[in-house]
Write a structure and sequence with these properties.
Elements (H helix, E strand, L loop, with lengths): L1 H4 L8 H15 L2 H9 L6 H23 L5 E3 L3 H10 L6 H20 L2 H8 L2 H23 L2 E4 L3 E4 L6 H23 L5 H18 L43 H30 L11 H18 L4 E3 L3 H6 L5 H13 L4 H4 L4 H16 L12 H16 L3 H18 L8 H16 L1
Length: 453
């Protein structure tokens, strides 16, 4: 372990790394339930998607572990799966096989870009103030996701969102939201007291409390409204279904697919995946203190290559774009610093193929406290951004980047707003030397994206 992952060099140990890997997996396990549900809308077999998601996650995360020695995990990206199902398939009318082929092409392009160091150059070109802002914005973004998963924040026609009414439907949504609140405070107290594995304990404790509430009748499952039993089911997955998606990206009919629209689809996947991945790597690496004095991430090229391989493999296996997950920050917050954290998560994804119903039984309100706590830890990077009058040209773009991520519900949108505003403000204010030429190119590309895509 020491030779492979250099644990002493990263000031960590096997116990901490494995606990961190389990924590990361527990916060990501929801994807095993959500991704099949979303892609089944496109006509894909849900069990096949589940198996493909597990295998793509294993391949990508294992590559991240052994190629880059970083504690980041990969799986089917949220947002990208919805784009595939609702926009490409239902909106454009393409088959899901064509959508997977577009993702495969995107993965090949990413591999080429990674080999030529283009993605690494983009990472290095982003100024340190924006990198810190990405960490802060991601903190707010994943905390917002946690609040939604907990059922604490719900939609409202007047104000867009509001606090849930705990008394309404108390035996389903109300008690779940209350359990999440309890879990948040338990996790916070454990973390403050420096209890090892506090985030993981918070997840398991909240889930156990939920099962107790169901056993005594406080929580009452209601499948029609989406509230299922909190107790895991114990049965194996039907592996024969895997053939319904494996290799189907090459069994396509391009006859009714316009070449221009198909290129647009490829570049839509490309843009979102590129900057979601960069945003996640920047944000999590910043919080973990993995960036060097110049704001660069060692082994970034290998990390980007692992991400590229995962996307390509995922398309062949039969799942939407596989990308680095922001929930990796939960494992980093639990002490994960090397690839041992990642390979632990990867193995759990592989095991989950056998006992998927058990892992997918982890309710979203149980993982919500972890996301909210990690959001706080990432938000604390805001203290490293200067907000004095002589630094407004860097502080304001950072602020806009932070603001955009949770409100636009997108890491990549936050990065694009941050880059465009950084270039525009610095050029207009006469600080051209502060603008890297690659940042200018990125700003122009983002503007063109908004115009044409």
């Amino acid at each position: 372990m020491e030779k492979i992952f250099k644990l002493k060099e990263h000031n960590t140990n096997i116990k901490t790394e494995i606990a961190a890997g389990i924590t990361t997996f527990m916060t990501m396990a929801y994807i095993l339930a959500v991704n099949p549900a979303i892609l089944s809308v496109a006509g894909m077999d849900s069990t096949a998607v589940l198996l493909a998601t597990c295998m793509a996650s294993f391949i990508g995360t294992a590559c991240m572990a052994f190629m880059a020695n970083l504690p980041f995990a990969l799986s089917a990206g949220m947002g990208l799966n919805a784009f595939m199902a609702y926009t490409v398939v239902q909106g454009y009318g393409y088959s899901w096989q064509v959508a997977l082929f577009a993702i495969f092409i995107e993965g090949i392009i990413f591999i080429i870009l990674s080999l030529t160091s283009v993605r690494e150059a983009i990472f290095d070109a982003i100024p340190l103030s924006l990198k810190r802002a990405v960490s802060v914005g991601m903190g707010l973004f994943i905390a917002f996701i946690g609040l939604q998963n907990a059922g604490l924040v719900i939609a409202d026609s007047s104000t867009l969102i509001k606090l849930v009414d705990f008394t309404e439907n108390f035996r389903t949504s109300g008690i779940c939201a209350l359990l999440a609140v309890i879990g948040i405070f338990v996790t916070i107290i454990l973390y403050i007291k420096n209890i090892k594995g506090s985030i993981l304990i918070g997840i398991l404790g909240t889930w156990a409390l939920g099962m107790f509430c169901e056993a005594v009748g406080i929580y009452v499952p209601d499948a029609q409204t989406g509230y299922y039993t909190l107790f895991p089911a114990f049965h194996l997955t039907d592996f024969s279904r895997f053939g319904k998606t494996f290799g189907q990206c090459f069994h396509i009919d391009m006859g009714n697919v316009g070449i221009f629209n198909f290129i647009v689809v490829i570049f839509s996947f490309l843009f979102v995946d590129l900057f979601d991945t960069l945003g996640t790597l920047i944000g999590v690496s910043t919080k973990a203190g993995m960036l060097d004095k110049n704001g660069r991430l060692p082994n970034i090229k290998a990390a980007l290559m692992a991400d590229s391989i995962a996307t390509t493999a995922g398309a062949v296996l039969g799942t939407s774009t596989t990308t680095t997950f922001v929930e990796s920050s939960a494992g980093v917050a639990a002490g994960g610093r090397t690839g041992l954290t990642a390979i632990t998560t990867a193995v759990l994804f592989l095991i989950s193929m056998l006992f998927a119903p058990v892992f997918t039984a982890i309710p979203s309100f149980a993982t919500a406290p972890a996301l909210i706590m990690v959001g706080f830890l990432m938000f604390s990077s805001i203290t490293e951004i200067r907000f004095t009058s002589d630094s407004y040209t860097t502080a304001i773009p950072a602020y806009l980047c932070i603001l955009a991520m949770p409100l636009f519900y997108s890491i990549s949108e936050g990065i694009s707003i941050g880059i465009i505003s950084y270039v525009f403000i610095n050029l207009i204010c006469g600080k051209r030397k502060e603008v890297n030429w690659l940042m200018t190119v990125l700003a122009v590309l983002f503007i063109l994206k908004y115009i044409f895509l």
